[in-house]
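Hi P.,

Sorry for the delay on this. The queue was packed all week, but I finally got your sequence through. Input first:
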Amino acid sequence: MTDPATGSLRVPGATLHYEVRGRGPLLLLIPGGAGGAASFDGVADDLAAEYTVATYDPRGMSRSPLDDPEAEQHVAEHADDAYRLLELLSPDEPARVFGASSGAITALHLLTAHPHRVARVVAHEPPTVEVLPDAAAQRALLARVQETLRTEGLMPAMAILAAGLQKDGDPAEQKAELELPPQAAARAERTMANLPYFVGRIVPRFMAHVPDLARLRMLSDRLVLACGHDSRGELPHRTAARLAERLGTDLLHFPGGHTGLTTHPAEFGALLRKALEPSGPSAQLP
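Then the structure:
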């Protein structure tokens, strides 16, 4: 793996750690969950053969400290961070953007807020539960997660969240999804350190975020909504499919499940490379 160039960017309320590798048009990779820039270690070098690939730790995660560690988090603020990175790293031309999970929610808001700075967005399983017909049940899930976090602690809250995200399925299938490559396992300590912040302040704000569907519909020619081939029935797959339905767009199926980026990096990266091009696939049916 090539060592990237690193830098820091002051933004309102935080300092962002970012990494850059490769050359060519800018591709900004926005991580989701409790991950940071390292989430993309499995694909960044390959993508850097065609793009200047920028990754970063979102505010409050890993090496991107908040000025106020207790500050509330908002999707618009995280999208503004991404915008400021685009302004720094690609001031003269629109960039391509990929976002995973909560990072996909950031990417969607970035597109609606700053469309002139974005040439193409690929959003993989953004868990925007307010678009679902059973949104009220999902609000109850989020409330239960927060109450459990407050009264019982992190791991019981994580268990409720994980159960709510998954489908009723074969336990062996779910176990296979959790068998991570050595590189991913090596960063587990940092991910675990981010979990209290993620569950307490990212999950409730991001999953309850209501995307601007009218604006996204107008910009759908530069948006690819994506999901995991193996995550059908899971909450993030349902939200991606519902978003695609509401916007009248196709749904691109990536290998693996919600964490296919980690479990199937080579195949995931190859399809992402195609999807980032205007002439790339907008749908891949099973």
